[in-house]
Amino acid sequence: MSVSRLHVIAPVTGKQLRSRQPRRGGVVTQIITAFAAENRLAAFIGLALGGFVPIATYLVAHRANSVTSLPAVLAIGGLAFSAPTVYSWARAALGSTAKAGGFVLLLEGVMILSSSIGLAWLGVLALGYLVLINATATACRLALGTRC
Fold this sequence. Notes:
By secondary structure, the protein is mainly alpha-helical.
């Protein structure tokens, strides 16, 4: 190889590294914070608290016989818990309030209604996303003691 084909790579400065970091409060930052080694306890509690609500909502909603039944009321409570967290995540990830609103409506709606339209597997997939989002946001909040 000739010398003319060698490329010298300049060292990366601290300023360049900081500019490549995910912005504070972003989805990637929350995941890194929630699952950092020093935050294992917060991650475990976040999974237990934040992950429980979507699972309980899914199971209760699929056992409800009518919209006026107690299980339906409990499912609405679960949606009220989850939707603001999912909205803030989607807004941070997608950069749009309209897209975030649509994402929340679609994801929460698919989790609740997928069995009634014969797509139970899609509801389970939506449930997985909701558990991940709610658990991570709760773990991040516990690790930092503030809103992520």
